[in-house]
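Q: For a teaching session next week I want to show students how multiple molecules come together into a single three-dimensional assembly. I've collected the sequence lines for a complex. Could you give me the predicted structure tokens for the whole thing so I can convert them for display?
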Amino acid sequence: MDVKRIRLDFPMLQGSAGNKSITYLDNACQSLRPKQVIDAINSYYLKSSACSGRSMHQLAAEVTRGVDQARGTIAKCLNAIKKEEIVFTRNTTEGINLVAHSLGLRSGDTVLISDKEHNSNLIPWQMLAKKNGIRVKIVPSKPDNTFDLDAYRTMFDKRVRLVSFGMTSNLDGVSIPAADVIKIAHQAGALVMLDAAQTAPHKAINVKALDVDFLAFSGHKMLGPSGIGVLYGKYSLLERIDPFLVGGDTVSSSTYETCEFLPPPEKFEAGLQDYAGIIGLGAAVKYLQDVGFDAIQKQELLINEAISAEIKDIPGLRLIGPADPHLRSGIVSFYIDGIDSHRIALMLDQMAAVMVRSGQHCVHSWFHAHQIKGTVRASSYFYTTLEDAALFTSSLKKIIKVL
Amino acid sequence: MFCIVAFVVLSILGIFSATNRALAKESLDCVFRRVTFRPCNTGFDEKMKAKILGTVITRSEVAARLINNNFELLSWIFFVLLTASSIWTARGLYLFYATGSCNGLNQSGFCVFDPNGNNNQVSALSATCKVTPTTEKDLTLIPVDLTVFPVKNSPSKEKIVMIGCYACDYTRQTYPMIQTLVNKSGASFTFLDYPVKTKSDYLTKVGYCLYRQDAASYWKFNDILFGADKTTFETEVYVQKTLTSLGVDAAKTLACTNDAKTEDAVKAQMKQITATNFYGTPTVFINGQVLVGPKPYRVYAIMLQGLLFWLR
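A: Of course. Below is the structure for the complete assembly, covering every listed component.
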């Protein structure tokens, strides 16, 4: 992979913050966008900003075609059986909420989640527990924060209806053994929902091979526009569950008393959709496919290895997750005894325009349980270079010397 | 303490920049917590500290470490300096308003509101008279017999005495203001003409004679001279015409100026003026308080009627 050539596609990497060019290491929060995606969004607004599916004119037909193509591209990328299994949402959070509120979970039903879920995959279940009386059981991780398959097995009883895990943790980059997790859940008669927000941008996902029931991810972490996301669901399940949001474009007909819902995915896509976002996401997925997920993973690992090697001997630095960078995707998350993580992040930004995330990364529950105030999280992507990694580590070392 | 310093600085910078305005707002919350004896938990001080350290570290790691280790102490130092300079600035503003100089009455040190020191300029006596310069502290009216000089509104308790010179620019700037004040307040006004510029020497004698001849015409004559181009009254013809225009017997007045008694009287007046130890014109005494140089009108009014003179 020619990273230098790829970087030319990203206008943000050509610009500068103040008088320094940026070193963007906050990709777990949001990725940068290539001009191909920006052009696709612009093209919608400049050439065909009309409704999809409803109107009969040529502009509407063009948008319908664009949305359909994007759905097809994403379905193909996930190896879904049919493109109707792809439901467009605003983001991963909305996808999880859709499942949480549509599955018809009742009092006593159990949902399993891990001990380091993003709030997106914690709060919806907490709310259901309060509202419907479902039980939420937490699967503990191993001491090195990797998934504890044995502990997971012991959590099952007849009442477990759903397993909902982050496929890759935004806290430390650790991925769960998804195939095993799904197999065990299905053997116990439970459905599986995967939060793939941190997986879809970095690894090829084969939903058919995984046999996953639901899988949600966001566009903004994988070169796509913000405000667009995807929920994959097995068609038979999507047919069976009720829609979460209802209204315009979800029904084929209605009377004053009743209505007839459209088949999936339309029945879940209420109201006018973010067509520019959908088309932009389609372009983003296509771009990622062209780069190739193997190449993406290889580059991220290269960066993670470089950073991990440089920081491993820093006194007082505590890495979150396993020491082996192969197990942490593109994420390096750490804290330093006695130093506020925000201060490090702000100083990195101020002194070298190195942009990282600091704090609790929406995984407050894990931080509270471990009594850690926060971490600095550097997250790379395939356009991150070894020079970026070197600048980050050298700046970090300088900061630690001063603080 | 840092947030208090930051609030003041950012508030000033915020006048010109929206970014700083937002930061000033943030710092205000922090200030509010500190003044109510609660810890600043807004993260503002942390954020600013990191930004400062992030900038300094690129230039000197030693300086950055020093700042980091002594941040609270440095904040206190800046707070004390800020407080002191604020008090100093307020004092300067007050003094400028009340005396025309940030440094106090008749003080000629640098003042940002009067950078050229115009309010303390004088037509210096030493420049023409070759006398040893005196200072403001030496100025006095105690040994001076003011009865030998022209006086207006003499019964008033409020007394203004002005030493001036017809041809001196700073006197010409001040005289109309003093007249306005005298007319408004009804204060007694004594004018001591001391011709610092030799070209206007003879006017002292003209003034002496005219005042004795017709006091009202003398004050009108003064008004005309201080309003006229100063090159015009260097000639006797102009004076003659002016006196005639005032309905005064010009011949009689001019004849008086050549009288030996007039010469002696004027010399006596000069002796009295010299006894004040003045060192330049204008020098104005308002109820004994001396003001050297052309002050703004408000300064004379404050000396006579107090800070709230404009309410009278």
